[in-house]
């Protein structure tokens, strides 16, 4: 089999890249190791930057997002019970869209299926070859049969644990990592959200987040230690802990119910450099990871593939390699700023085992500065709604 661009991974990165390229007449094949249902069963991000909304519109998959998504003008930060709202529209004239990653993935999958483009689900033992030359290939096993896919380019969109970054020759990659000493225990519940907008809460017992997926489905998180097991958290224990970490009014108004999903996600900051190796490009979580505190993971993935799609279309249309030569530097410049924001939000909102009384005062001072300074609030708004491409 042959194609122009072989895409490894059918998460949001791979599917969005495939959509953008197919719309521009560049043929792709996506190889995904899991089943379609498995990919759709993952509960992950919830907030889309305005730039991501525009990119999904450009990809022709924005209709349901605009019909069902919730446009949010701001968020609230709650610090030891003191709540403060940051109005993005007032501060910088931008908004965010609350629309779950699962729904984005579903919309992209449906568009791809309708287009007839080839996606191989449950592709096993994917391996990448000869991407340091101009005739790269990908091998995989499907239903026990070995296959080889010849291509011009390989896009590694297979996430943090994927095969693409692992295929880069030893010594060709630098990585930067910060692993946080806690995780997020998240639940999904079919109850109306406690507030119209998201509430990020800092408390001495730990961080909490009140989010949502729709007017009838809510998403909540509490910070937990890395030793915690999800089995040790009954719904009752979760609701009780969440109430202790938010302000009194929020605790009072919380509409609790049986969880329909419950899981613990670890938090890390991670960047690989560079993101191009001959005919192989890394994008999305294969290239970088952010702690979800800044709601950047999915949005960075979208930016990466927006830039990569533009570069590949330019290569085929104009036989120019300027875009693909500049891909890594251009994407990394924005990635590092999003890494900084995500690390900063995580640093001020979570409790750290080694934070002393001075460190806790610094966290409080960060919050007070945000509340008291329009310049600081505008900076928060600019980063949260998405820095320019
Ligand atoms: P993904 O990991 O989503 O997709 C990669 C795909 O590649 C997967 O389908 C995988 O099965 C496939 N794959 C892997 N190895 C393969 C192989 N060898 N061969 C073929 N296919 C292979 N971001 C937020 O903004 N907010 C959040 O709250 C949030 N919560 C998260 C919770 C968890 C548990 C995780 C892991 C991430 C979370 N993120 C969150 C970040 C998340 O949304 C990612 O940024 C987003 O999924 C990135 O999309 P992809 O780059 O497509 O990677
Ligand atoms: C979510 O709704 O899952 C969500 C929202 C904002 C975040 C992280 C997760 O920063």
Quick overview of this protein structure:
Strands 6-5-14-15-16-13-17-20 form an eight-stranded mixed beta sheet. Strands 8-2-1-12-19-18 form a six-stranded mixed beta sheet. Strands 3-7-4 form a three-stranded antiparallel beta sheet. It contains twelve helices and 20 strands.
Structure description:
This protein is of the alpha+beta class and 389 residues long. It has a domain at 5-74 and 92-176 and 268-346: FAD/NAD(P)-binding domain, CATH 3.50.50. It contains twelve helices and 20 strands. The strands form four sheets. It has an eight-stranded mixed sheet. Strands 8-2-1-12-19-18 form a six-stranded mixed sheet. Helix 9 packs antiparallel against helix 10. The longest helix has 28 residues, at 322-349. It is globular, with a radius of gyration of 21 Å. The model has no long low-confidence stretch (mean pLDDT 97). The site of P-hydroxybenzoic acid has 9 residues, from loops.
């Amino acid at each position: 089999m042959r194609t122009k661009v072989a895409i490894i991974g059918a998460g949001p990165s791979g599917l969005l890249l495939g959509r953008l390229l197919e719309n521009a007449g560049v043929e792709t094949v996506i190889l995904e190791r899991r089943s379609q249902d498995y990919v759709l069963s993952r509960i992950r991000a919830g907030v889309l930057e305005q730039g991501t909304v525009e990119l999904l519109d450009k990809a022709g998959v924005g209709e349901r997002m605009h019909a069902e998504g919730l446009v949010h003008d701001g968020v609230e930060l709650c610090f030891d019970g003191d709540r403060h709202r940051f109005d993005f529209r007032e501060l910088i004239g931008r908004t965010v869209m609350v629309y779950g990653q699962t729904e984005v993935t579903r919309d992209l999958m449906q568009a791809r299926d309708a287009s007839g483009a080839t996606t191989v689900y449950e592709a096993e033992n994917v391996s990448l070859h000869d991407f340091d030359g101009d005739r790269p290939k990908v091998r995989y096993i499907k239903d026990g049969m070995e296959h080889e896919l010849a291509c011009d380019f390989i896009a590694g969109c297979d996430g943090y644990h994927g095969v693409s970054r692992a295929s880069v020759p030893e010594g060709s990659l630098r990585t930067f990592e910060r692993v946080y000493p806690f995780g997020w225990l998240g639940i999904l519940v079919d109850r109306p959200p406690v507030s119209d907008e998201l509430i990020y809460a800092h408390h001495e017992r730990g961080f909490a987040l009140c989010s949502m997926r729709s007017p009838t489905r809510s998403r909540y998180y509490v910070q937990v230690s890395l030793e915690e097991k999800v089995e040790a958290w009954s719904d009752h224990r979760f609701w009780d802990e969440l109430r202790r970490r938010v302000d009194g009014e929020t605790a009072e108004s919380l509409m609790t119910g049986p969880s329909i999903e419950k899981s613990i996600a670890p938090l890390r900051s991670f960047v690989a450099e560079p993101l191009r190796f001959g005919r192989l490009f890394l994008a999305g979580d294969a290239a970088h990871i952010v702690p979800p505190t800044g709601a950047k993971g999915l949005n960075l993935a979208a930016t990466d593939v927006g830039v990569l799609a533009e570069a590949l279309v330019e290569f085929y249309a104009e036989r120019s390699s300027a875009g693909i030569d500049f891909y890594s530097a251009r994407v990394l410049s924005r990635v590092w700023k999003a890494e900084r924001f995500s690390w900063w939000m995580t640093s001020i909102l979570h409790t750290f085992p080694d934070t002393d009384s001075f460190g806790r005062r610094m966290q409080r001072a960060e919050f007070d500065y945000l509340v008291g300074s329009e310049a600081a609030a505008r900076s928060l708004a600019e980063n949260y709604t998405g820095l320019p491409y």
